[in-house]
Amino acid sequence: STFSSNIDANGDLDVDGQTDLDVLNVSDTATFASDVSIADKIIHTGDTNTAIRFPAGDEIQFETGGSTRLHIGSGNITQTIDTDGEGLIITAGDMKPMLTGNSNRSAENNTIFGISGKWNNTEVGRIAFEAGNDTTNKDDGHINFYTRVSGGSLTSRLLIDSNGNIGISEASPQALLHLNAGANSAIMFGNTTHGYKIRANVTSSHDYGLLIEDEDGVDLYRATSSTGTNATDTHIWSTAGSERLRIASAGQIGIAGANYGTDNQVLTSQGSSSAVEWRGINTPAFEAVQSSAHNV
Prior knowledge:
The protein is elongated.
């Protein structure tokens, strides 16, 4: 059948003098030279619950089994599934399938392409491909991972910048791996029963050093640099939660947390063939002399 003008499926169709037709059967190829106007749906022959629908203006809907499977609206494409594991599948032969987002954003950190996870319409996670700082060439970028705590807001947790540096709670990582959670900037090994932490107890206003702790946060070792808030330039070893050994900024050694001064408490090497000896910080070495009554 060949139609050279519009067909209005809502009106009468004159075929061989018949104008009141419930069904039009075309057994061969039908060619339409212009538009076909359909009120609602196109139904698969012999499978009435499979259809292509036009439910409203600017919308197309694909149905199987009497349910909507794919909906194209004015800006969104929605797929509905009814079995775990179903979804969008891109099948390819000897080639790489790609899911691509392409946008011309104007500012650094603008999202170019995102993958969002929602729990009952509340966004709880996101992977964002974001613009870098070269807004002229627009050829750099980073990947940002977000999560949300209960009652909180969506927050960046891990960022991979354009140099490959990874920031955890850090928007501008300065090393291959950069953790910044203030006083809780830690890495834990093991589990909550038997584990160890390496933690930097630092914020923008204080520096209490780098610590090795057990799983409960009990100190085993602490090192503080020259910028430390207290105990500057020291190394402290602890057991059972108490300080046992300290090396201070001038080399003084304190044992068992005793209060020590500065004189004659620096253990100094005298060379490969000599025994070590105690020295004061600002005094020359003293010599151990044995008498009949005392060791001096």
